[in-house]
Write a structure and sequence with these properties.
Layout: E1 5-8, E2 13-16, H1 22-30, H2 32-42, H3 45-54, H4 64-70, H5 88-92, E3 108-109, E4 114-119, H6 137-141, H7 144-150, E5 155-160, E6 167-169, E7 175-182, H8 191-194, H9 200-203, E8 206-212, E9 218-224, E10 232-234, E11 247-251, E12 256-262, E13 267-269, H10 271-278, E14 282-285, E15 290-294
Parallel strand pairs: 1-14
Antiparallel strand pairs: 1-2, 3-15, 4-5, 4-14, 5-12, 6-11, 7-8, 8-9, 9-12, 10-11, 13-15
């Protein structure tokens, strides 16, 4: 399999992703025996729940220091010291110092750390991760009335790796409604898996929240579950106004994704995001950094 590469906004260079659990992913999604195991139990919620509980065991605290060393993480960003986490999961969904993720002075900011793809028309996405397969926005939203409001709008996919900060935030100001849960299996959302079948993105268990905004109409925010994601936990209060960059929730153990969808002709996504996405290359950027502006504005 080809290595996973992305463009780093901060180093201005293409980099190769260090994939957590790479050998297992290649076996599960590329080996005939692995695919049997994948469909028999790996994709099933009980497997991820079991693995998530394992990461809550006090003994997993021993994994924290080696993980930090292996991925050369900046502990100065952490709100708490590495030694203070009672288990690996607590470290995994750690909080950061507010200064570690400043909020950009633009209308839209990235909702999470990760590797991002952005498209002006969510129904004209083809070739992302796998050639010839188009994005199924209707299946992703799983609500025809809501789909009608967002078809033809812009979409940003933010993919989080296990090494990333795993709290997700609101990309703009507004008032969020209740979160709707859409049940499904839990396939991996690593490119290793998505190169086999992009539809995992709209088959997996996911959560969906409508954000009412003063200038952008409605914004649809989804969190996508994945293999070994123990939980998608929401920490915001529904029907209460939020500021851009406020925390919405967090993922327990495992890499996953968030998706932000805008109504047509409402936003102007950042030029570097669109440029690299057009070449099917993800852009690495951190939560709070510029994702775009209201249509017609440019700061």
């Amino acid at each position: 399999m080809e290595p996973i590469t992305f463009y780093n906004r901060y180093t201005d260079s293409t980099e190769t992703e260090q994939v957590y659990g790479e050998s297992f992913l290649k076996w599960a999604y590329g080996n005939p025996l692995g695919k049997i195991a994948l469909h028999a139990f790996v994709k099933r919620p009980f497997f991820s729940a079991w693995y998530g509980r394992r990461m809550d065991h006090p003994k997993t605290k021993e994994k924290v220091a080696p993980f930090i060393d292996d991925y050369q993480m900046n502990v100065d960003d952490f709100l708490d010291t590495p030694e203070s986490y009672p288990h690996f999961n607590a470290f995994f969904y750690r909080k950061l110092k507010p200064s570690a993720r400043p909020i950009a002075d633009t209308d839209l900011v990235f909702p999470a750390d990760g590797r991002h793809l952005g498209f002006e028309n969510a129904e004209d996405i083809a070739g992302a991760f796998i050639k010839g397969q188009k994005w199924d926005l209707r299946a992703l939203i799983d609500d025809d009335a809501l789909y009608q409001q967002f078809k033809g709008g812009s979409l940003v996919l933010s993919r989080l790796c296990p090494v990333d900060y795993h709290r997700f935030h609101f990309p703009c100001v507004g008032t969020p409604g209740e979160t709707r849960v859409i049940n499904g299996p839990l396939f991996s959302v690593s490119p290793i898996a998505l190169r086999q079948n992009l539809s995992y993105m709209w088959e997996n268990k996911r959560t969906c929240t409508v954000l009412d905004t003063p200038d952008l109409g409605k914004v649809l925010i989804l969190e996508i579950g994945a293999t070994c994601v123990g939980s998608i936990l929401q920490t915001y209060q529904a029907n209460q106004a939020i500021a851009k960059g406020d925390e919405k929730g967090y993922f327990a153990f495992g890499g996953s994704s968030t998706i932000t969808i805008f109504q047509p002709a409402k936003v102007q996504l950042s030029s570097d995001l669109l440029e690299h996405s057009a070449n099917c290359q993800e852009l690495y950027a951190r939560m709070g950094d510029t994702m775009g502006d209201t249509m017609g504005e440019k700061k």
